[in-house]
Amino acid sequence: MDIKETSILGRDADRHWYYASKGRALLQLLKGLSVDTVLDIGAGSGVFSRQLLDAGVCRRAVCVDPAYRAEGVERHNDREIRFAHSPDPGPADIILMMDVLEHVDDDVELLRRSTARLRPQDQVVITVPAFQFLWSGHDEFLEHRRRYSRRQIEAVVRAAGLEPVKSGYFFGLLFPVAAIQRLFNKWRRKSDAAPSKSALSAQGNAVNTVLIALHDLERKVMFPFNRLAGLPVFCLARRPR
Questions:
Q1: How far apart are CA 200 and CA 193, in angstroms?
Q2: Cα first-last separation, the chain
Q3: What's the pTM value of the predicted model, to 2 decimals?
């Protein structure tokens, strides 16, 4: 979770429908895995690492983000989660890069460098925002450089020396509403009527519960096989044998 959005969503940010549903999609992608260490690059609040620890996917998580005010170690449900400014020199079994590559000029180089110690049996999960035509004040607020199609992120993965295993879009049920809203806001921004700001906001318990249930249904029926449309792209990759 971007640290900028943590301040917007408040102390219940980890339970927000967007991050709860996205975390469940991540868990579905990694179903059946049980590993020692997850390296969460650009981790922000560490929401996805906590979800993996809670589900028993890993025994230890290392969250890396240069925006942290200080480094340190915490216990989460009796498991270690470390917060650092730079990656641990040791190996990781799973690398997370959740909404990271869109923030840098050279996405291929960052991915190549971040996965340099990846072993053939290890995996990396990447998410990026989908479709450049959905560019909005949300992207400017979060300091994005670009958005991606599924084919574009797979091309980045291959250029970094990795092999895509699975890829697909998520939040496809929200896509028509979000597309209309963002295109309308883009038109408004031409007259400077719409400021750059996050598209996420805190929701009441009822709305939050309904949206999580809606995306649980989508996840069970469509994910990760949705190759048509959505708001983020998920890509599971590995180093070729």
A1: 19
A2: 32
A3: 0.90
